[in-house]
Amino acid sequence: MVKKMKSSSGSAAASQQGSHLAASVKDSAQQIWLAGMGAFSKAQEEGTKVFETLVKEGLNLQKKTQGLAEDKISEVTGRMSAMADNVTAKAGQNWDKLEAIFEARTAKAMGKLGVPTAKDVDALVKRVDALAAAVARLSKSAPAKTAPAKSARAARTTKAGAAAEPAAKTPVRRARKTAGA
């Protein structure tokens, strides 16, 4: 029985130790619970402040990125404008070349058809002016001469008119031949 007593006195100590341990665990759990409640309360209070801080930082970041994006857009726009100007200049040069080729081919075709060029017309105008001046000189000097001189002058005028007439008709004949061919 002594053994039983020892064990029962050990059991009382163990039970006292167990209840002390239970109280200690209960106190720890109570403290953990209170710490959690405090953290939750603090998070609610500071959560608003943190949220507002995050919003401000977000706005600042958005402003910075918008500024950078606008700078990049301006840079790209400048490059594209330069490229467009370059392409326009090259197109203008090509257009000038095309125009020169067209003019040359048109002049060649008109020459084949016998159409007089601007140089030909200018030469004819100069020739007509020279003939008109010669006629004017002859008309001023004609009253001083006798009648036979007038007939010589008329012969010269007829020769000049006959020489000018075939030159004017020649392109027309060529044009008809080419058009008929």
- CA radius of gyration is 59 Å
H/E series, N to C?
Answer: HHH
Largest sheet, if any? none
In what range is the share of β-strand residues?
A: under 5%
Total tally of structural domains: 2
The outline comes out as rod-shaped
Helix percentage: over 70%
Total strands:
0
Q: Mean pLDDT, rounded to whole units?
A: 77
Low-confidence stretches: 163-181
* Helical run tally: 3
Structural class: mainly alpha
How far apart the termini lie comes to 152 Å
Characterization of the model:
This protein has 181 residues and is mainly α. The chain has two domains: 19-113; 114-181, no CATH class. The protein is built from three helices and no strands. The protein has helices spanning 2-113, 118-141, 147-180. The chain starts with a helix and ends with a helix. Residues 163-181 have low confidence and may be disordered.
Keywords:
181 residues; mainly alpha
Topology:
Layout: H1 2-113, H2 118-141, H3 147-180
Entry summary:
By secondary structure, the protein is mostly helical. 94% of the residues lie in helices and 0% in strands.
